Amino acid sequence: MSSSPVTDIHSHFLPKEWPDLAERFGTPDWPWMRHTEAGKAMLMVGEKEFRPVYDACWDAGRRIEEMDRDGIDRQVISATPILFAYQRSAAHAADCARLFNDLALGICGKGQGRLLSLCQVPLQDTDAACEELSRAMRAGHVGVQIGNHVGDRNLDDEGLITFLQHCADEGAAVLVHPWDMLARERTTRYMMAWTVGMPAETQLGVVSMILGGAFDRLPESLRLCFAHGGGSFAFLLGRLDNAWRRRDIVRGKSRNLPSSYLRRFYVDSAVFDPTALRFLADVMGEDRVMLGSDYPFPLGEEIVGELIRTAAGFSDAARARMLGGNAAEFLNLADSQVN
Ligand code: CO
């Protein structure tokens, strides 16, 4: 029995430096890096401190070192969602996407073949998003990371469905990441935007796709994953099914019961609790959960892969699937043969 390479499908990068975007575009509050000491920096948004980061964000060598420490063969890097720029002009977001997509490939190029990348696109403009996806796929990205909404447009929006169809046509894996969290005015303290807002956003993304009929319209060949275990989705699926059965207004454009769409998408394993992981695998299937860590950010899994390796109640084969086999299928890599 051979196992696929252990693959972390949810990790982020930040280049060490990039052009001054506020100056480039003539608009304020773009992200930039304030390097504080050797190997450390503060990610800034305008004049506000956003997050302390360290050199694993930009140094492929450091990443490889830490991957070896944690027993990770392969890592998929994607941008930090504050760089999506969906709320900006499409032209600026497209320029920003090209810039960071090329910088991501630069980091992967130093990763001994063990780093792969998901691009970002100007999702507020469907044509521009499709164009950048095609360019990035030709340049070497394996898929795309998108936010779970664009302003008030959820994932069942016509333009977003058109983009997802294009992802299927291009064979691009899609990681849906929460961003621009709801109830901002009530979650300003204690990082509640991360602990409460993000899981709710992700759930909203999945539910919109199901009830909006997106899965009914999109081809089964579309490979899609929701970050952070799908947020609040799995735990509240019974509530959604119950509502769907009892009130026709809940059903929207969906043809089938919400729980019948679980074969259409993956989730990552970033739930930080063995009972939650077991529950998630019971709901979604052991072939639908993939290692995802949020490395190297402060709220990511500290020893990447530890949860899957140590949680009770999984067979060796199930662990191998979650550590790598499912990711190989999601990414459509040749080594997807698993037992
Ligand atoms: Co993340």
Please sum up the structure shown:
By secondary structure, this protein is an alpha/beta fold.
Notes on the protein architecture:
With about 350 residues, the protein is of the alpha/beta class. It has one domain: Metal-dependent hydrolases (TIM Barrel, Alpha-Beta Barrel), CATH 3.20.20. The strands form two sheets. An eight-stranded parallel sheet has the order 1-5-6-7-8-9-10-11. Strands 2-3-4 form a three-stranded antiparallel sheet, with no helix packed on it. It is built from twelve helices and eleven strands. α3 (about 90-110) packs parallel to α4 (about 125-140) and α4 packs parallel to α5. α10 links the parallel β10 (about 265-270) and β11 (about 290). Bound molecules: cobalt (II) ion. The site of cobalt (II) ion has 5 residues, from β1.
Provide tags for this entry:
339 residues, alpha/beta, TIM Barrel, eight-stranded parallel beta sheet, three-stranded antiparallel beta sheet, 12 helices, binds cobalt (II) ion
Q: What is the domain total for the residues?
A: 1
- Report the end-to-end length measured between terminal Cα atoms: 6 Å
Mean pLDDT equals 96
Indicate the low-confidence ranges by residue numbers: none
Largest sheet: 8 strands, parallel
Q: Which second-level CATH architecture applies?
A: Alpha-Beta Barrel
What is the level 1 CATH name?
Alpha Beta
Helix-residue proportion: 25-40%
Bound ligand species: cobalt (II) ion
Helix and strand content put the structural class at alpha/beta
What coarse outline follows from CA principal-axis ratios? Answer: globular
